[in-house]
């Protein structure tokens, strides 16, 4: 969608808004803009893949190697890590990012024969995500991309130093779809809002993937009660400013039963708001799973997994405490909402 917006597939007005340099310096350092040297993620594309150490490490026990790789990923900064076999249905057929076209490599066929995918996630800050949609959550999302991209690049390099091929896939360098891979690797479940929800952070993490041939034991998909919660809750759909999230039942999309986001509506909102931010995370901010990672969140997660009544009760509590249509709060650095005065800080922080 980002690339479609950039090349004019969503109309000239969207193209102009998406391609015009941002007024926000965080936007300019976290996302591709005019001065490439000021966007660290952009230069990491060059080290996403690389040469192999000719002295290959023997892997006698893939389960042991999987434990080691997970520990290395956490050492490098991952908050969550899981492993699955790489399903070729989750590999893009062609390069299609705006940055690919800018570099003259757009539209090329992708061959990614790696056997495994390692999914890594990094938490985004609870308080800053609650501001959505505005420049503050936009900066937090950009930082999430940077942090998780760093983990993926370093982990792929570590594996290549063991003598096995590995490629880091991260924001502006993806050949794979992170969400279904993360779901297959047991990190969490796909929710109504089209986002992966995990037990510790709800929808509040950024994902990256390392694909490799290093022999690894794989994880299984998990059921933490997300889909069961989404069947009772429509908070993201009710709060979505563009009404891109379905209120109804799941539908079959290319053989998969899921709630299908209207990505074009979502993207049009991102670029059409009068305050000129280029992002929106409202569906993350309002989700009842989006809570600080503390004891009462863990108690709720355990209850939600087990009981229909607990799900009903906790959704009711969330509506009482945070409101059915919670208003974003805006006060961080010098940011104010749309140039107007800031409202107050969140009370429960
Ligand atoms: S807000 Fe409710 S319906 Fe939407 S993803 Fe979260 S739990 Fe599911
Ligand atoms: S990002 Fe914003 S516009 Fe897009 S689906 Fe989520 S709430 Fe709706």
Helix and strand topology:
Blueprint: H1 2-7, H2 12-19, H3 25-30, H4 40-44, H5 62-76, E1 80-85, H6 98-102, E2 116-123, H7 126-129, H8 135-161, E3 166-169, H9 178-184, E4 188-190, E5 196-198, E6 205-212, H10 226-232, H11 235-239, E7 251-253, E8 256-258, H12 263-272, H13 282-285, H14 295-306, H15 308-322
Antiparallel strand pairs: 1-2, 2-6, 3-6, 4-5, 7-8
The structure holds iron/sulfur cluster (2 copies).
Keywords:
349 residues, alpha+beta, NADH Oxidase, 8 strands, disordered C terminus, binds iron/sulfur cluster
How would you describe the overall organization of this protein?
The chain has 15 helices and eight strands. A hairpin with a 5-residue loop joins β4 and β5 (196-198). It has 349 residues and is of the alpha+beta class. α5 (62-76) crosses α8 (135-161) and α14 packs across α15 (308-322). The protein has two domains: 2-212, NADH Oxidase, CATH 3.40.109; 226-339, no CATH class. The chain has helices spanning 2-7, 12-19, 25-30, 40-44, 62-76, 98-102, 126-129, 135-161, 178-184, 226-232, 235-239, 263-272, 282-285, 295-306, 308-322; strands spanning 80-85, 116-123, 166-169, 188-190, 196-198, 205-212, 251-253, 256-258. The structure holds iron/sulfur cluster (2 copies).
Find the structural class using helix and strand composition.
Answer: alpha+beta
**Whole-Å distance between the termini?**
34 Å
CATH 2nd-level architecture of the largest domain: 3-Layer(aba) Sandwich
Describe the sheet with the most strands. Answer: 4 strands, antiparallel
Outline type: globular
- What's the level 1 CATH class of the largest domain? Alpha Beta
Radius of gyration: 20 Å
**Spatial strand arrangement across the major sheet:** 1-2-6-3
- Strand residue content: 5-15%
Segments where pLDDT lies below 50 for 5+ residues? Answer: 338-349
- Number of helices, counting only DSSP H or I runs of 4 residues or more: 15
């Amino acid at each position: 969608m980002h690339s479609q917006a950039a090349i004019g597939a969503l109309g000239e007005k969207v193209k102009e808004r998406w391609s015009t340099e941002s007024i926000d310096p965080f936007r300019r350092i976290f996302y591709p803009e005019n001065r490439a040297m000021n966007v660290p993620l952009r230069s990491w594309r060059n080290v996403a893949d690389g040469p192999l150490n000719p002295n290959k490490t023997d892997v006698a026990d893939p389960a042991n190697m999987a434990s080691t790789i997970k520990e290395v990923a956490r050492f490098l900064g991952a908050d969550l890590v899981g492993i699955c076999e790489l399903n070729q249905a989750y590999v893009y057929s062609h390069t299609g990012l705006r940055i690919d076209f800018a570099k003259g490599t757009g539209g090329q066929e992708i061959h990614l024969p790696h056997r495994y995918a390692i999914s890594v996630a990094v938490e985004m800050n609870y308080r800053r995500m609650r501001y959505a949609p505005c420049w503050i959550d936009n900066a937090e999302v950009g930082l999430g991309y940077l942090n998780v991209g760093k983990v993926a690049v370093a982990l792929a390099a570590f594996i290549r130093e063991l003598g096995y091929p590995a490629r880091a896939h991260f924001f502006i360098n993806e050949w794979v779809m992170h969400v279904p891979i993360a779901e297959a690797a047991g990190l969490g479940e796909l929710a109504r809002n089209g986002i992966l929800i995990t037990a510790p952070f709800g929808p509040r993490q950024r994902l990256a993937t390392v694909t490799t041939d290093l022999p690894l034991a794989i994880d299984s998909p998990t059921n933490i009660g997300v889909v069961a919660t989404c069947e009772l809750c429509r908070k993201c759909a009710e709060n979505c400013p563009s009404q891109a999230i379905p209120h109804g039942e799941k539908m079959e999309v290319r053989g998969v039963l899921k709630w299908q986001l209207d990505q074009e509506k979502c993207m049009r909102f991102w670029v059409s708001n009068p305050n000129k931010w280029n992002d929106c995370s409202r569906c993350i901010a309002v989700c009842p799973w989006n809570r600080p990672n503390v004891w009462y969140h863990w108690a709720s997660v355990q209850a939600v997994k087990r009981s229909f009544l607990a799900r009903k009760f906790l959704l009711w509590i969330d509506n009482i405490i945070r409101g059915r249509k919670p208003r974003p709060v805006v006060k961080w650095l010098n940011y104010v909402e749309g140039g107007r005065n800031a409202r107050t800080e969140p009370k429960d922080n």
